Structures are given as structure tokens and as C-alpha cells.
Amino acid sequence: MSTAPHPLTTTASGSDVRVRFCPSPTGLPHVGMVRTALFNWAYARHTGGKMIFRVEDTDAARDSEESYRQLVDALTWLEIDWDEGVEKGGPHEPYRQSQRHDIYREVLDKLIASGAVYESYSTAEEIDARNTAAGRAKQLGYDNYDRTLTDEQKAAFRAEGREPAWRLRVPEEDVTYVDLIRGEVTFPAGSFPDFVVVRAGGIPLYTFTNPVDDALMGITHVLRGEDLMPSTARQLALYGALIDAGVTDFVPRFAHMPLVLGEEGTKKLSKRDPKADLFLQREKGFIHEGLLNYLSLLGWSIASDRDVFTRQELIEAFDIVNVNPNPARFDQKKAESINGDHIRMLEPDDFASRLVPYLVGAGVVSTPPTDAQREMLAKAAPLVQERMQMLGEAPGLLGFLFRDVETYDEDALKGLPANAAEVLAASIQALEGVPADAFHAEAIQAALAGSLIDGLGLKPRVAYGPARVALSGRRVSPPLFESMELLGKDVSIARLEKLRATRG
């Protein structure tokens, strides 16, 4: 039996590379799905090839237009663009499987004419009964019984009102291919029986529609998840039939990307895990640059000593053959740390504008922000850009600059020194001596340091902690002296007075 890969396997490279992303629109986009889109996109951009985005929406019970729109939203937000497909069109329209039934019927007719597929009338119960009678395990499934049906037998089944399914006549030989990530893979002869490509009633299955679409759209590289690897043998068998029938003239290269595991590292990241929810991560405050960077690390690296890089650097360096076949673990803390690195890479104006939706969503600023609020944000944003990992931290860090402090965090109050009232009183006295027109960070720091550190002999943490809590209501805030400058002398002193009054 032959174990060599199909001689017509594509050798496409450079601008001839064509990859595809073909999800089913069910549920919310999750990070595993988006990682698949990302690696296909990165490979297309690296080679100068094309990415095709089509939708496998033939499961009417589960597919939804809402999920489709969310898929488009997810890719658009991450700036994963495509060259052909839904929303853009192209030479192989339509790009929704639900609109391609006539195309599938034409291909089926060609396979029927070439003898690659045959009518099958066996029911699941009949297959089980034959296996039992032959002493075969039921798990072995279909026994290729219908391969040799006579015309009389077929006519008899049709007379009973049965409609045939169509099965591919699987070659009785080893199926071998070279996985771009995992190396040579062989499925021994007899590993799988003749399989259904079109159900009774003319309903095409995934094992048919997916390779047919790839063939007709000229897909040269099928880059997909490891969980789909068992279906590769069937796809390769079908490709041989499609070539013989004149539907295509080459077999694509395959690469199976590693699983994405949960943080515990023992099982696949569940679609129901909040960390897998792309939009929940966006709501928490990921920027697209940071999340794109982290997702690319789930199975690939730009260098052994480097985790942070730009979109363009990813494109220049990415090659599917360098993807690690071992499972990748989703690490939320590392993802957020990388996001923080990308936040610090933003231009100040860009960073400030990206904070607006989070401040609006928390009711910190109006919709839309007033001119005064935008001015305050422009001044305040540089104070927190170096210390934020997630944009969702903005309301907590900056809210006190836009509204009065109504309550104090419990941990902030617990951290106040026993002499907080004395420290606050000394702070107020020191600030009252700073002229309103000179109420700037350097003058504020000098006044407080002279009174609290030099005068009372306090350490900075004890000296400035009460003022920080008074101004922001929190134990952690933007730089204290700059925050006071933004709030102004009257507001700063009023907030110190308010907390002092609660300390007795």
C-alpha cells in the first residue's frame, strides 16, 4: 500500500497562498476561534497571500444572524481583515454555505458520474444488526455493505419509500500527509469506512461541504485546530475523488494548531469559561493590540526572550511551520500584563480617547463628555497610562476627578494611620499657604513635605496616605500632587476637611 503524500499536493507559496477562516455562527466568538482566524490572517499577510472569510451556516437550529454579526465585529475590532468573503464579496460568491446548495449538488453529480460515490440505504439499526451477526463491534460502524448493491436491490429500497444517502468510496490504502506543524501523519488503510457526504434528502454534510468549498475557492493551506485532525483523512480521501472528477487539480497543505487549555493546564479552555469570551475580555479593558499580541503567543513565539511586539512585527515574523504542536495554556495575568505594555505604547491622545467608553459606561462622564470633561481627561490620562493594565480600571482610577467622593473604600479606611486626623489637619494648613494661582504639583509637594515629613517627621506613606484617601476614596490613585493640581485648591482642601471630620 502507498504511504506517500498525494503527488498533487500544492506547492503554493508567496502571493499564491490562499487560507480561509470558516466558522459556524453559533454563540459568542471565543478566544480559540479567534486564535484560528489570527494565525490564518498572519500567515496570509506574512506570505503576501489572501485570506478568505466564509461562514458555515447550514445548521438552522443553532446558527444565528446575531452570532454572525458578532463574528464580524470581533474580527473588525481586532483588525483581522480579509481579502474575499462575507461583507466583501469576491470571485467565489456566495460565501455562506446556506446559499451554496446548488453548487454542492453540481459537485455531487460529478462525483456520481465518476463513480466516486454510491447510493446507500442502510439504516443505523441495520448496520448494528449486521455487525452483531458478523461478530464485529458496533463501534466499527458502517461495513461498506451498500457498495455492491445491484440495480434490483436499489429499486426495491426505493419502492419501500427510502431515499439514498451518498457515501464516498474510500480507497483501500494508507492515507498520508505532511502536517506543517506536526510532520508526517499516516492513517492506516481501513481506519475509517466509506462515509456519508450527502444525507438522504440531499442534505450535504460538513465532511463534504468544507473540502468542496476549499477546492472551489482554491484554498492552498488549511490551518485549523487540532480537534479537527481526525477528519483530515476523510478530507484527503474526498480530495482524491474531487481531483478525479475534475473539480480541482491539487490537494491543500494542512496544519493543525495546538489546543488552547484553561489556566489549570489540564483541559481545553471551555467556551463557557469567562476567559474564553472575547467580548468580556474587551469589556474588561483589553485593547485590540494587546489581545492580538497575546493570542498570537498561544502556540507561537516571536523569540524565546520576547513577548511584546507590534502587529507589523507579528506579520513579518509569523510562519505556520514555527507553531508549537504542544497545547497552549491561556494565562489571564500574562495576557493583562501584555495588554498593559501595549497601553503604554499608545500615543497620549489615543489613550485618552480609548478611556471614554469606559468612563461613559460607568457614569463617570456624560454622554457625550462635555468640553470640560474632555479637558480634564486629557490632563489626567498621562497620570495613569504608565500604571494601567486594563482600560476597565479607568473609572476607579479617574472617577474622583470628575465627581465628588461619596464613599471611601473599606480597605482604604483600614489603612489609615491612627493619627489620620492630625495628619489631615496639618495637610490642610500647609495647602492653605499655597496661593491659588501657584497651586501646582511642585508647590503642593513642597508644602506637604515641609509640614508632614520635615515638620511631623512622618514617612511618605504615612504622610500622604490620608490625603490620597480623602481625594480619591481609594488606597491607590494617580500621583497625589498632580491630582490635587487638577482638582484645584478649594476642592482639594474641601475633601481633606470632609475626611478629617469623620476621623474625630
TrEMBL record:
Alphabetized HAMAP family for the sequence: Glu_tRNA_synth_type1 (MF_00022)
Catalytic activity field: tRNA(Glu) + L-glutamate + ATP = L-glutamyl-tRNA(Glu) + AMP + diphosphate
Keywords assigned by UniProt, alphabetized: Aminoacyl-tRNA synthetase, ATP-binding, Cytoplasm, Ligase, Nucleotide-binding, Protein biosynthesis
Enzyme class label: ligase
Residue intervals of the Glutamyl/glutaminyl-tRNA synthetase class Ib catalytic domain: 17-334
Pfam families: Anticodon_2 (PF19269), tRNA-synt_1c (PF00749)
Location relative to the cell: Cytoplasm
SUPFAM superfamilies per record: An anticodon-binding domain of class I aminoacyl-tRNA synthetases, Nucleotidylyl transferase
Domain Aminoacyl-tRNA synthetase class I anticodon-binding: 351-498
Chain positions of motif 'HIGH' region: 23-33
Protein family according to the UniProt entry: Belongs to the class-I aminoacyl-tRNA synthetase family. Glutamate--tRNA ligase type 1 subfamily.
EC number: 6.1.1.17
GO MF annotation: an example: glutamate-tRNA ligase activity
Short motif 'KMSKS' region, span: 268-272
Purpose: Catalyzes the attachment of glutamate to tRNA(Glu) in a two-step reaction: glutamate is first activated by ATP to form Glu-AMP and then transferred to the acceptor end of tRNA(Glu).
Known partners and oligomeric status: Monomer.
Main location: cytoplasm
Organism: Microbacterium aquilitoris
Protein name as catalogued: Glutamate--tRNA ligase
Positions annotated to bind ATP: 271
